[in-house]
Specification:
Length: 168
């Protein structure tokens, strides 16, 4: 488990970019627990997140330049591979909900490919949007680009993989 410090910038899938204002201990029901106090400026929101549940909730540090490139390469590589056969909603839920950002990228790729071939059900479309939002947010934070530019990067890398598949 990664421990954030006061002043750390973080990405939280449901609220975007935040800053750790404080790390403190509170007692509830006789049990002491550490919390992050996170300020999400864009949403005018402050929230407390238990330190021991931060990973489970998807609180993430920004990616390095190398990690962003590896993430985009996963989209390209996965798009050029054969599709998963007979996957159901639980597979996509697992991939998009994964704490491993590379699994999220694989799930996004699978859903993009499915959308192109057979179309998506409403819940799959919502999972795709959620997955793209997660990738988009991490790229925006890490590369300091605008959301539209990050989204274009995601789609462009995926299309490069599709084009590679078509040529082979």
């Amino acid at each position: 488990m990664f421990m954030f410090k006061k002043g750390s910038k973080v990405f939280y899938p449901y609220h975007g970019i935040g800053k750790i204002d404080d790390v403190f201990t509170r007692e509830f029901g006789g049990k002491k627990e550490k919390y992050y106090s996170i300020n999400f400026v864009d949403e005018n929101l402050k929230m407390m997140v238990p330190v021991d549940k931060a990973d489970d909730l998807g609180l993430r540090k920004f990616l390095t330049e190398e990690e962003v490139e590896a993430l985009l390469e996963v989209l390209k590589k996965r798009a050029s591979e054969p599709r998963e056969k007979d996957v159901d909603r639980s597979y996509f839920l697992h991939m998009i909900g994964s704490l491993d950002i590379f699994d999220v990228a694989k799930g996004v790729c699978e859903l993009l490919c499915k959308r192109e071939t057979t179309g998506l059900k409403r819940d799959e479309d919502e999972l795709l949007k959620r997955g793209i939002d997660i990738l988009n947010g991490l790229i925006v934070c890490s590369k300091k680009v605008k959301p539209a530019e990050a989204r274009k990067m995601i789609i462009d890398y995926w299309k490069k993989g599709l084009n590679k598949k078509k040529k082979s």
